[in-house]
């Protein structure tokens, strides 16, 4: 029909609808009968990058890294694993083997506790973080690491400071964590309030069969005295393990 405008004119000059970058347009035959932009290389590239980033964020390694990042473990210990722990003596090998067994038997032994005791520098924190590490990786456990003095200070801050998290906001995540590593047990001053606070936390975990790894520089009998019979008794239920790290400090070794 003469006089009717050819719909295929003019050719669009608009850029990519998403990023504005120049793109080529192609006329799509009926039934589409419209100008369509050819895929924009930049957007396709960005999309591919986004897909790759999303896939790597979901990768097992990324998930484990995120868990460890949220565990509150000190950055020094992020690379301290059971694999990087060097067992040089029979006693060290035995304790390391027990730590590995704890990880391997995790699924079958809910609520099982561990106590690592021994002098400073023996590698107790390393081993405890190694357990947390291994469980984050192999059993997707969301472990939390906290030192007793830090925990008690945080709770006290909640009493004294209006803008600090309340006691329940501090304690709740520790009650529900898949694994709790409680370090520096015994560094507290041992007031009744401290004892009751720790007992309530640990008892809540015990009642819900949630495992706790205790780390202390105290001897086993000192630990018993500080924590009290009721708690120590609970340690043995579900096959709890007492691991005595009776060897000299790694920091001071001469070899
Ligand atoms: N057997 C070991 N193999 C490798 N590193 C060790 C070993 N023992 C201790 N360390 C390292 O020595 C330092 C002190 O250990 P740490 O776990 O803090 O001791 P503890 O908690 O018993 O005081 C840490 O950096 C730890 O990684
Ligand atoms: Mg330590
Ligand atoms: Zn584009």
Give an overview in words.
- With 255 residues, the protein is an alpha/beta fold.
- It has a single domain, classed as P-loop containing nucleotide triphosphate hydrolases (Rossmann fold, 3-Layer(aba) Sandwich), CATH 3.40.50.
- Helices cover 44% and strands 14% of the residues.
- It has helices spanning 41-57, 60-69, 90-104, 124-138, 148-160, 167-176, 192-207, 220-227, 229-236; strands at residues 25-28, 34-37, 114-118, 143-147, 179-185, 211-216, 241-245.
- The strands form two sheets. Strands 4-5-6-3-7 form a five-stranded parallel β-sheet, with helices on both faces.
- Strand 5 (179-185), helix 7 and strand 6 form a beta-alpha-beta unit.
- Helix 3 runs parallel beside helix 4 (124-138).
- The longest helix is centred in the first third of the chain and has 17 residues, at 41-57.
- The chain is elongated, with a radius of gyration of 29 Å.
- The protein starts with 24 loop residues before the first strand and ends in a 10-residue tail after the last strand.
- The model has no long low-confidence stretch (mean pLDDT 90).
- The structure holds adenosine-5'-diphosphate, magnesium ion and zinc ion (ZN).
- Magnesium ion is lined by residues 124-125, 183, 215.
